[in-house]
Amino acid sequence: MQWSEFERACPEIATLARERFAKDELVMLGTVRSNGYARVSPCEIDFAAGRLLLGMMWRSRKALDLLRDPRVAVHSVPSDRTNPGGDVKLYGRVVDERDLEVRRAFRDAIRARIDWAPDEPDYHLFSLDVEQAGFISFGEGNNRAMAWDAERGFRRPSHPDLG
Fold first, then answer.
1. Which one of 20, 36, 43, 93 is least enclosed by Cβ atoms within 10 Å?
2. 45-48 and 144-149 as β-strands: parallel, antiparallel, unpaired?
3. Looking at the domain 3-155, which fold is it?
4. How far apart are CA 32 and CA 50, in angstroms?
């Protein structure tokens, strides 16, 4: 489901994800390489047109991965070993965004964020259709675990530290 639908379906994780991604301006992106191995790459992220958008350099390896296999994992950037902000994880498939209105909204969002935008059509733009999401944090008084998928909805699984 598109980001705006995910926000309605699971505001508990969507709110944490949006705040964290906006603060960091970066996520770790997991894609599937042509040989089947995982590729993990940093990627800037923006929200526009009701979508979570991932812009990429033209013909970058991660973009080519996604054009071939749209499955993806999006993970918040850990701050350090203890990562007090927790881990936000989104899983799903990307859509190659060709719609000019969506691309215009992306360019407006990135320009507002960093006072620059890529030239058309020399970049790839993907939106994430969220299929699963999770959040976990560790540390004394900060042990939280949340999960969501369309089939089972929102839930609070047991935290590994709490048994």
1. 36
2. unpaired
3. Pnp Oxidase; Chain A (2.30.110)
4. 26
The pLDDT tens digits for 36-94 are 999 999 999 999 999 999 999 999 999 999 999 999 999 999 989 889 899 999 999 99
Would you kindly state where each structural domain of the chain is located, as residue ranges?
3-155
Give the whole-angstrom CA distance, residue 68 versus residue 50.
25
Distance (Å, rounded) from C-alpha 139 to C-alpha 33? 34
Q: Indicate the pairing of strand 144-149 with strand 71-76.
A: unpaired
Give how far Cα 152 sits from Cα of 9, 82, 83, 128, 149, Å: 11, 30, 28, 20, 6
pTM metric for this prediction: 0.95
Alpha helices in 25-139 (DSSP H): 61-68, 100-114
Q: How many CB atoms lie within 10 A of CB 121?
A: 11
User: Which among 156, 150, 149, 146 has a CA at the least distance from the CA of 15?
Assistant: 146
Of 6, 4, 5, nearest to 90 by C-alpha is: 6
The type of residue at 29 is L
Q: What token pair was written down for 20? A: 């964290």
